[in-house]
Predict the structure.
Amino acid sequence: MPDGLHTLTISGALARAATIAERCARNAAAIDQEGAFPVDEFAWIAEAGLLAAPLHRTLGGPGLGTEAGSTLALLLLLKQIGRGNLAVGRVYEGHINALQLIQTFGTAQQQTMYAADAHHCKLFGVWNTEAADGVKIFPVNGRYRLEGAKTFASGAGYVERPMVNGVLPDGGWQMCIVPMDRVQVEIDPSWWQVSGMRASASYRVDFSGVELEPEELIGAPGDYYRQPWLTGGVIRFAAVQLGAAEALLDAARDYLQGRGWTGDPYQRARMAEAAIAVESGNLWLRGAAPRADRLLLEGDCVDPQAYVAYANMVRTAIEKVCLDVLGLVERSVGARGLLKPHPFERIGRDLTLYLRQPAPDAALADVGRHVLERTTPVSALWSDDNF
Ligand SMILES: Cc1cc2nc3c(=O)[nH]c(=O)nc-3n(C[C@H](O)[C@H](O)[C@H](O)COP(=O)(O)OP(=O)(O)OC[C@H]3O[C@@H](n4cnc5c(N)ncnc54)[C@H](O)[C@@H]3O)c2cc1C
């Protein structure tokens, strides 16, 4: 167990994340290449005890995102890591997601077992995305055989406990944890030919032939897609994305200060718009957190549809914040600012790709549907009573 892990507090976790974010930012250009992975960064994260951040206190963690009252801290933690390096943020968010899912749907025995792995610095992830040859799960003699592949499997080759979801013969969608140190898979890095997020190692991984024990299946079929938990989770990636927008704004301010351009009214206007955008993103996270806390406290919510629509508003609004900040900062620093070693083009490439999350149109349509189907005044649609 890393030193001090058992005493990790929420404020301690945030302070450590801020320090790690600075170190990540300093190293980000060096690992901005295909085939790279933020190995040092995850060593720092592990050393700081942050791989245990989402573990419930009964499992030896501070319970970020798994205990009521801690969601804002989790979102701020994710934002910090995203501010340092989006590729690190992407992989770290997957680690948090997997441990949250295990603690929501896993048995007590599974929670204990995988918490011990997290304490021993094993990295988790969630690999759900797939192409036409996706993962199928076949029960065979009391075990489960996997056939098929995942795409966009972030941290492939480094994540030791990925949650790999697949379809059962009856059509049910089943969560599984694959112990990568025990099985053989085929990892295809050539699949990941990208302009941004190079160091996230989001490869194609073929699991054909892997056999799992029954205790490696998490929850019941369909649990992964259960609402409001599935869509409620989008606030995590939105927090990571917002971290990159903050990094862009900080760097743009440094750049303009360095060039002595702070008195120019156009630059002031752009920085004002970017600052307003970033702060509105922070307000969205602050709006989301107490609602997620309520779900953690009560195990359900009064109006799951309202909760889902709210989470969809958060991700849609923060996507727009990020796109606005990207455009404003690019115009402010101009072509010269977009040359290396300035960080703008790298963060811009990473953010442009990482903003592409599942089903953005459906997320927006869901908000519109919710507004149109209800007859309560709009001011009451998102009131505390709904959550
Ligand atoms: C850097 C990075 C790392 C990732 N890591 C992981 C990971 O570790 N694990 C994981 O599971 N996934 C991962 N993903 C995948 C991610 O979660 C999304 O699934 C993926 O980015 C969505 O891909 P897409 O934009 O091509 O989606 P699409 O669904 O193809 O959407 C593209 C566009 O089409 C629209 N659209 C969608 N469906 C339809 C339809 N039926 N008809 C018409 N239009 C439609 C969408 O609204 C959107 O506008 C990662 C993605 C990135 C970029």
Remarks:
- The chain has a mean pLDDT of 95.
- The chain is about 50% helix and 10% strand.
- Residues 227-386 form a domain with the Butyryl-CoA Dehydrogenase, subunit A; domain 3 fold (CATH 1.20.140.10).
